[in-house]
Amino acid sequence: MFDKKQNKIVAIKKMRLEMANEGIPKPCLREISILKQYKHENILKLQKVIQQNNILFLVFEYLDQDLEYFINNNIKMNKKTNRHLIKRIIKEVLLGIY
Prior knowledge:
- By secondary structure, the protein is α+β, with helices and mostly antiparallel strands.
- The protein has helices at 26-37, 67-75, 82-97; strands at 2-3, 8-16, 46-52, 55-61.
- The chain has two domains: 2-61, Phosphorylase Kinase, domain 1; 67-97, no CATH class.
- The chain contains three helices and four strands, in the order ββαββαα.
- The chain is elongated, with a radius of gyration of 17 Å.
- 1% of the residues are buried.
């Protein structure tokens, strides 16, 4: 989706709130608070949260591929750099967690 205010493409995660009268479920709140708290180049940036009726929209920066896509299209295709790519991926994941 294109965000006119930021003049760039963003990704949107849509979460249905099953029990709208009970508020936002704890797992959703936990995910939102963690994503808002951490600012790291290896963690996807949560830009804003929008609630409309019983739907919650999480607006993220847009990336052209996710980790699964990267692994499937790079590691499996090129066996020579397999070890190097695996080490790089693990390092970046651990840095994001740290």
